[in-house]
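Sanity check

After download, print the first record. It should look like this:
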Amino acid sequence: MAKGLSPMVSGGAVGLLPLFTTLFLAIVMLLPIGSGVANVTMPHLVLISVFYWLSSRPLLMPYGACAGVGFVLDLWLGVPLGLNMVLLLSARLFVLTQLKHYKGRNKLVQWAVFAVMALGLYALSWAMMSVVNARIWPIKPLALQWLVTAFSYAPVAFFLGRLRRWAM
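Expected structure tokens:
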């Protein structure tokens, strides 16, 4: 590694793989799937990607990358600016402080840790949206979004794991 350069830059294109895959999953997350009749709930693929990359290679997903992806996602989704930025930065903080407790454990443990973290982050986003809009938001759509995201972690993490093994 070159002196003074971040692992993202010194690793070349491979060092940017976590950022590029996260941005790709953000685009996939925003694709119109289904019809207006079949109100399909999309998992938060960016949160899954950030959790996966922080759990496996934390230096390749720094604070700036999390904040930048969150800001771009806020602009695309039309939510209050800073909402996804706060969620992704909170996810990074959670993973870096708790990584020593679940690193190297069973994949089921990592899935459970992700589900608990996502539940806390969705509760935080519900509270932030309720405060910003000055009314209590319904919990049912948020609970459905959390369930879809929690159950989507395993296949997305499998895909990211295969990609990581192939590229790195």
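If your output differs, re-run the checksum step. Summary of this record's structure: The radius of gyration is 16 Å.
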